[in-house]
Amino acid sequence: MDVHTHILPRTWPDLKDRYGYGGFIKLDHHHECKARMMRDDGTFFREVGKRTWDPDSRIAESNRIRMNVQVLSTVPVMFSYWAKPEDALDVSQMLNDHIAGCVSANPTRFVGLGTLPMQDPDLACDELKRCVNELGLKGVEIGTHVNDWTLSEPELFKVFKTAEQLGAAIFIHPWDMVGTELMRKYWLPWLVGMPAESSLALCSLIFGGVFERLPDLRVCIAHGGGSFPATVGRIDHGHHVRPDLCAVDCATKPSDFLGRFWSDSLVHDPAALNNIVSIYGEDKVCCGSDYPFPLGEMSNVGKDYAAGALIDSMTGDGWTQERRAKLLGTNACDWLAADPSAYWTM
Ligand SMILES: [Zn+2]
Predict the structure, then answer these.
(1) Residue 240 CA, ligand 1 centroid: distance in Å
(2) How far is the CA of 6 from the centre of ligand 1 (A)?
(3) Region 335-340: what's the mean pLDDT?
(4) What is the pTM for the complete model shown?
(5) Domain Amidohydrolase-related: where (predicted)?
(6) How many Å lie between the centroid of ligand 1 and the Cα of residue 5?
(7) Per-residue pLDDT tens for 178-215?
(8) CA 77 to centroid of ligand 1, rounded, Å
(9) Which of 34, 70, 129, 188 is deepest in the core (most CB within 10 A)?
(10) CA separation for the pair 106, 210 (Å, rounded)
């Protein structure tokens, strides 16, 4: 099971026309198998291929590498947290209905995660309930922050509480990267900003007492948690030496929450994968590829789907078949509260 894949509808309405203001993304299908993701001010965001919107292409590629299940979530540029709440809800519902349709057409091959208008926590809670109770989604994908709010913001607590009550999984994905205004070259928002965003999200949930107050909340962080696992000692030390700054909302040592949340495996490096398995626990790391995007786990030649290749390549102490099976499938089912036998033969 690949917990980190993104999907878009093939088309959607022109959102600038629909809402009367700009800032949204649309797909410009300039070729049968390719489209440009364009901002509605005409600027180019990213070129994407057919597998971004076509379920059959995704299943064919999954079959080639014997990947049973893709967990589908939207592309973070579609979160629309900056838009008017009722419009972000409208976008979310369109995307969530699409993902639910993909899952219902291929229920053994896809698991769905919704998106929420997080800038309005009440609307977000209502849509979260709809996602789980009406659409059958296993949870939602949210950003590492919401405009000026970090995930510790009291306003957002009700969303996490609702997720806990519903048993909904939460996938946290970096977006709107911190420091982007300084990082004008070298793709640094993706290489430096995104790892910082993931650590920002985890530290916000830890320091803000969200994990402490919601012991049954099931969170998975993208990209191995970014810079968090490499700096958890520093985070603990800060909590210890400046409790006046760090321990104001949660007295528990940050590293005591290791093992409480899941992470994907997308770290691109054997030493880093060993590190996150050591830090988070071998029950808490899930195969995740960021399919179909270029920073994902793709083959060097042809950028073919290669989810799980790093896990398969691991050797040395601890890399038993049992561990591989956990990382490639059963850990994800634990995070999603999904029955593995619904997806593959045990
Ligand atoms: Zn991603």
Answers:
(1) 33
(2) 6
(3) 97
(4) 0.97
(5) 2-332
(6) 6
(7) 999 999 999 999 999 999 999 999 999 999 999 999 99
(8) 10
(9) 70
(10) 35
